[in-house]
Amino acid sequence: MKLNKNVVFSLALIVFAGVVIVLSMQLQSLFLSQSGDIGPKAFPIGAAAALILCAIGKMLTEGRHEAKPLFDREGWKRVGIMFAIMIGYLAAMWYVGYLISTLVFTPMLVVAMREDRKLRPVTLAIFSVVTTTVLYFVFQNIIMVTLPTGVLFR
Amino acid sequence: MEMLFTVISAILTPSNLLIILGGTILGIVFGAVPGLSATTGIALMLPVSFSMSSTTGILFLGSIYIGGISGGLISAILIGVPGTPASVATCFDGYPMAKGGRSSRALGIGILSSFIGTFISVLISMIFCPMLAHYAVKMGPWEFFSLCFCAIILVVTMSKGNMFNGLIAGLLGIIVSCIGIAPIDGAKRFTFGVVNLYSGVNQIGLILGVFAVATLIKNFAKGDTKTPDIDTKGISGFGISLREYCSHWLLIIKSFFIGLWIGFLPGLGAGLANLVAYAQAKASSKTPDKFGTGWDEGIIASETSNNAAIGGAVIPMVALGIPGDTATAMLIGGLMIHGIDAGPLLMTNHPELVYCFFGVMLFAAVLVLILQFFGMRTFPYILRTPVCYLYAAILAICVVGAYADSRTMFNCGLMLVMGVVAMLMAVGNLPTSPFILGYILGPMLESNLRKGLTYSKNGFATFLTRPVSLILLLIAVGSLAWPFIRDRRDAKRKASGKESEVDKMSNVFDVEED
Fold it and tell me: Does the keyword Transmembrane apply (chain A) (predicted)?
């Protein structure tokens, strides 16, 4: 068995299942156990124990083969960029609310995913305003959900 | 008769008509754009359906479902890239036919086959659901536990690839479903004092994270976001006469029943049905060498079967509360959002809702036929939508949708975390279908297990002494052994050079899940 991606992944799963078992052991039922009831611990412990067995099975079956990477280096860079923008978007929404954050971050997402496409600033601006307005109208006026206004403006 | 009027009046209400039309168009768009699917469409629109009444919500989600499965043929035929896994086999003959200047014929055959598959399969499911539900209400917690267990195991073992990956994904879904207040005794589990987790991991946050955010980011990371070139010049009319089409009646019937049966089995769905039906059509054809060159029969087999799988998947969903595929799992989620438990009592407690669901599927099938016929020249333009704009708008909808469900930013954060979880699962080759099934069925599995043990005097033995429960458990155990038998058989076939048509095609495209 080689220490490839699948072996590391299986080991991480075993650790995770171990944590689930430890946390489950600390659970307490709010009521006195009825006859035959297994209580709140048993089910997650059973699932975690089965997870350990399956992780070992995965390690034994896939550990022998060369692991194929999910993405190349460029692909992972793209994943990192997208999650960074999304985290930024949520943080901005928390601080400055829906309107400003969506106006700023939707064009950022387009630029990040543009590939070889040439983008015109005017099109980007129109897209940003239209998306923000349509979503605002649908959620605020039709679905009746008050969108976040941001902690800075409260 | 009264029910028929209720359904017709619900569907034909002007506001509902608009919602169904919008849902069907949206479904076709999601089905047509490669990388997106009916599943993504339903996931994205779940928060929107939250504000609607339960009937309107199910009409909306049902129309997206039908549009989404049928829409996949547009990109499969015009650009040779399946819009959804359900249309993989449509590419084999649809694309060569379109390249040969017969786009209209390819689209016409695909549209007619889609309609027949959907419409008749939904009619059949309307007959079978009440019969199955009538029996299912007599089942106790023992049978329900075994049924849920059997469904999860079937999803895991029948899917392609290493069985352990499916099992791990299902177990992870079950562990995630344990977060929150436990059934029966109300103990708080894995909440770490976070109030937002007391009611469990939010369904919308999880679904959007796994099926929308992660899917889009994965597509972008793989570079699947380039806008294709499409030639729409040769598209006009159906390209095939009804008489000529009907001459393939035997193939239509065979493909239909293949799709219906595969759709009925939990976890398989349209993604496999189209490949099996195509392989069957080729194997039984007098001219197998014509397949792959733009042959009518290839498109008929694929499109009839993948749409027939819809009716098959709906039967266990409506009658038993067990999703047949990922999209029906989402539809069950949609019902749960409205406080409606999917299960055998659904037909007794909410018959109007169930028949509205059937009604909208039939109505949407007709709508898809009309929209795709008249929009034959327009729909290809969907594929010209710059993906960067489309994805950016979808990601913004995800954020607002996650927020709208609970009115907290916590849910948006949860959605991103679930996106990361889905990405990590992809790193470990774990499929997402068993994960969502484990998450949806986990609470049902646990509460029925605990109820079964509490009600019985013989503990776990009761699960083995009740005949239906025993049969279901035996099927589950038997299907656990199936992948090992399959692998041995495949290895033997490969060694002797007798690889099956389905295996060959599965190797061309990744068709592990819808």
Answer: yes
CB contact under 8 A, A38 and B389: no
- What are A53's two structure tokens? 């067995």
Is B121:B308 a contact under the CB 8 Å cutoff?
Answer: yes
- Longest Cα–Cα distance of chain A, Å, equals 70
Question: Helix H segments across B137-248?
Answer: 141-158, 163-177, 203-208, 214-222, 242-246
Count the alpha carbons within 13 Å of B490 in the hemisphere toward its beta carbon: 14
CB within 8 Å: A36 and B213: no
* Residue B213 DSSP class: I
Q: pTM above 0.90?
A: no
Q: Would you mind telling me the total number of residues written for chain B in this entry?
A: 514
Report ipTM for this prediction.
Answer: 0.93
How far is residue B420 from each of residues A79, B124, B210, B415, B436, measured CA to CA in Å?
A: 10, 40, 8, 9, 15
Rounded CA separation B23/B65 (Å): 8
Instruction: Among B220, B423, B428, select the one facing A113 at the smallest CB separation.
Output: B220
Q: What is the pLDDT of residues B285-297, one digit of tens each?
A: 888 888 888 889 9
User: Contacts of residue A11 in chain B, CB cutoff 8 Å?
Assistant: none
Alpha-carbon gap, residue A10 to A31, rounded angstroms: 37
Please give the Cα distance from B201 to B179 (Å, whole number): 6
Q: Write out pLDDT tens, residues B33-73.
A: 777 788 888 988 888 888 888 899 999 999 999 998 888 88
Rounded Cα gap, residues B41 and A124, in angstroms: 24
Q: Which of residues 399-458 of B touch A (CB under 8 A)?
A: 399-400, 403-404, 407, 409, 412-413, 416, 419-420, 423, 426-429, 445-446, 449-450, 453-456
Spatial distance between the Cα atoms of B409 and B327, rounded to a whole number of angstroms: 26
Q: Do B48 and A36 touch (CB under 8 A)?
A: no
Nearest C-alpha of chain A: how many angstroms from B152?
Answer: 13
Please give the helix or strand (H or E) that residue B400 lies within, else none: helix B387-406
* Out of A29, A37, A105, closest to residue B454 by CB: A37
Of the candidates B51, B187, B393, the beta carbon closest to that of A30 is on B187
Nearest in space to B364 (alpha carbons), one of B83, B131, B76, B58? B58
- Chain B (51-110) residues lying within 8 Å, Cβ to Cβ, of chain A: 51
Nearest CB to B162 within list A44, A61, A105: A61
Q: CA B294, B219, B40, B428 torsion: positive or negative? A: positive
Are B392 and A98 a contacting pair at CB < 8 A? no
pLDDT tens, position by position, for chain B (514 residues)?
A: 778 888 888 899 999 999 999 999 999 988 887 777 888 889 888 888 888 888 999 999 999 999 988 888 888 888 777 767 788 889 889 888 887 878 888 889 999 999 999 999 999 999 989 888 888 888 889 998 998 888 888 777 766 668 899 899 999 999 999 999 988 888 889 999 899 999 899 888 898 899 889 988 998 998 866 666 666 666 666 778 888 888 999 999 999 999 998 888 766 677 778 888 898 888 888 888 888 888 899 999 999 999 999 898 899 888 888 887 788 888 888 888 887 877 778 888 888 899 999 999 999 999 999 998 888 777 777 777 788 898 999 999 999 988 987 889 999 999 999 999 999 999 998 988 889 888 988 988 999 999 898 888 888 899 999 998 999 899 888 888 877 777 777 778 777 766 665 565 555 444 444 4
